[in-house]
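DM between two lab members

TW: hey, do you still have the Succinate dehydrogenase iron-sulfur subunit entry open?
JB: yeah, one sec
JB: this one, 236 aa:
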Amino acid sequence: MAQLKVRIQRGDGMAEYGVAARENQTVLDVVTEIQREQQPDLAYRFACRVGMCGSCAMEVNGVARWTCRTHVRKVAEDGTLTLRPLANLPVIRDLATDMTPFFDKWARARGQFQPKDAPNGAVPAEFAVVPPSSPKRQEADAGIECIGCGVCYASCDVVSWNPDYLGPAAMNRAWTLVNDVRDGGRRERLDAVAGDAGCHSCHSTQGCTERCPKNLDPSSAIAGLKRSIFWGVLAR
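TW: and the structure you got?
JB:
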């Protein structure tokens, strides 16, 4: 049986393992086999195994991916896998990263829904009716399926250059709320995503859009924020 050569970052170095190549094998299958049969203390993260949670994301041969949905045959043409933790995040151990800075930036971008029709943030008594065909609803729908896996954040050059940069996922979330007609925090949200750490620092290289496993377009969301801030300034 053919063998895969697997190189995994552990601390400051790389450890090498051999794993049998199997039909329809995913990268997560390979990591799990190594942990169960060769390296019991190997640290990595996963949950659903079917592309619903995004927690298994790591760097595979230089590209951030969900490992549960990545088949080895598509990324290891020479029979070699090189696995590293997601870039731009603190490493807890081995392939497991600390997602705290990622979600802290969601908070900085005011990514929490703020109902405008209820006092003190209380839940409105009645559900708001938003026509699915309305332009703002369609803009919100375009980015609302983000599950916070961090692949776009790890793929963002601007985050690697400027650790304070909010990142594409946080701003994609802000854009969905800017277009939510039920939300009352639009002005504060646009203020939060402006500035050197916000949307104006985006270089539009579109690495986030290229790598998003959900086929979302954070680059367009960031461009939408830039337009909204520009027209908002003119209107003041």
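TW: got it. The longest strand covers residues 3-10. The chain has a mean pLDDT of 93.
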